[in-house]
Write a sequence for this structure.
């Protein structure tokens, strides 16, 4: 079977290899099972206005960081051969990727539908190039409606390829969708049949928001197959402290301020504990200041963004994983932690409810610092009552590659037929 993946974000670009990583984990499973898999990756960086300002020396936050000669070359390409200059080819883990750099031209990039209109145009260019090079896919798998779901839905009649859609986005819960986009989404949810979401809570949210009861089905995310096949470490930690670990972007939505405050309440007079926070983001300085203010510099460490191998290393060195988010559509890092035999603490904030229960961890209310503090204390005393091999076995049975593959191949076969 030939599957083409189209995410709304870029597909694991070199400058940001975590973008599209969940889709890439799924693609690697399909490749391993003998299928042909490709991906389209879109970005829109420039308009005529941005390039002209850059050429005359006016710097903006959108100005390309290029030499004057390369900037002039880019400007000429966008005028004379915009479609041909927008396409480049890449291969990652045997997955053929076409990267397409769109161009706003004279369009005002701040208009709500501007990006959608540009992506619709370049989607046709990229898909034609893909089919010419790699053949026509049997099925297209779109991830997130804004914007990939919209531009594929608008143009799919031109290519006659079955499409399924998976929604991951937290934008619906955050009320971040402008009216013009929302009305386009309503049409999509009214007319498309093969729509999936990554958690039951997200399904309920979408069905209520767009008045489409019983039309969206559950397709959960999958454990990174590399993490799944890495055996559990049998080496006992030499660290005599209980180590709590949290991984996530340092942004308000992830709740790290709540976690640090709760940790301070729970362990202000306890020495044999530490908290490691991995990630990067706009709150880094604020978190460092909070750690200093609460006199936690010896107990709480920020270690920055880490790669996939370091995720495994950190999980194998911790005793409890904590996800204090205000909202999650799923919570892949929770199933990764459980696959390493680590019990988890999470907020019931959307996605984690379909992952966490009393057999593998604890759920607390989001933004409830005192409740989180109590659970941290409880886990400090009882984390070793969980059987790490049972945690791993159970989560792999539910969210491992075989469970995912059996479900996804059934879905693809049904839409192809």
């Amino acid at each position: 079977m030939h599957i083409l993946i189209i995410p709304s974000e870029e597909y694991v670009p070199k400058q940001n290899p975590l973008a599209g990583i969940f889709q890439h984990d799924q693609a690697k499973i399909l490749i391993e099972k003998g299928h042909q898999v490709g991906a389209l990756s879109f970005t829109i960086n420039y308009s005529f206005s941005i390039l002209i300002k850059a050429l005359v020396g006016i710097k903006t936050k959108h100005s390309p960081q290029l030499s004057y000669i390369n900037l002039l070359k880019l400007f000429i390409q966008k005028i004379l051969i915009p479609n041909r200059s927008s396409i480049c080819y890449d291969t990652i883990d045997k997955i053929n990727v076409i990267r397409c750099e769109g161009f706003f031209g004279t369009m005002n990039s701040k208009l709500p539908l501007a990006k959608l209109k540009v992506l619709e145009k370049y989607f046709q260019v990229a898909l034609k190039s893909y089919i010419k090079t790699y053949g026509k896919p049997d099925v297209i798998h779109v991830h997130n409606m804004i914007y990939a779901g919209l531009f594929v839905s608008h143009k799919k009649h031109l290519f006659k390829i079955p499409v399924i859609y998976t929604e991951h986005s937290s934008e619906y819960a955050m009320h971040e969708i402008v009216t013009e986009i929302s009305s386009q989404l309503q049409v999509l949810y009214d007319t498309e049949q093969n729509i999936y979401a990554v958690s039951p809570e997200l399904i309920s949210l979408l069905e209520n928001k767009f008045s489409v009861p019983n039309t969206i089905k559950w397709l959960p995310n999958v454990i990174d197959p590399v993490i799944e096949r890495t055996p559990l470490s049998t080496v006992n930690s030499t660290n005599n402290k209980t180590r709590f670990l949290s991984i996530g972007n340092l942004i308000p939505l992830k709740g790290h301020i709540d976690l640090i405050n709760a940790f301070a309440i729970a362990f202000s007079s306890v020495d044999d504990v530490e908290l490691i926070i991995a990630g990067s983001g706009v709150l880094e300085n604020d978190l460092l200041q909070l750690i200093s203010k609460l006199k936690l510099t010896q107990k709480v460490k920020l270690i920055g963004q880490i790669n996939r191998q370091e995720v495994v290393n950190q999980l194998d060195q911790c005793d409890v994983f904590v996800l204090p988010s205000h909202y999650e559509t799923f919570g892949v890092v929770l199933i990764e932690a459980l696959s390493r035999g680590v019990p988890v603490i999470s907020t019931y904030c959307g996605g984690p409810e379909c992952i966490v229960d009393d057999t593998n961890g604890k759920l607390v209310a989001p933004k409830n610092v005192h409740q989180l503090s109590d659970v941290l204390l409880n886990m400090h005393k009882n984390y070793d009552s969980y059987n790490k091999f049972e945690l791993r076995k159970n989560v792999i049975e539910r969210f491992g590659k075989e469970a995912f593959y059996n479900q996804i191949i059934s879905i693809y076969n049904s839409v192809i037929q």
Remarks:
- The chain has a mean pLDDT of 91.
- Residues 2-218 form a domain with the Rossmann fold fold (CATH 3.40.50.2000).
- DSSP finds 16 helices and 14 strands in the chain.
- The CA atoms of residues 353 and 363 lie 8 Å apart.
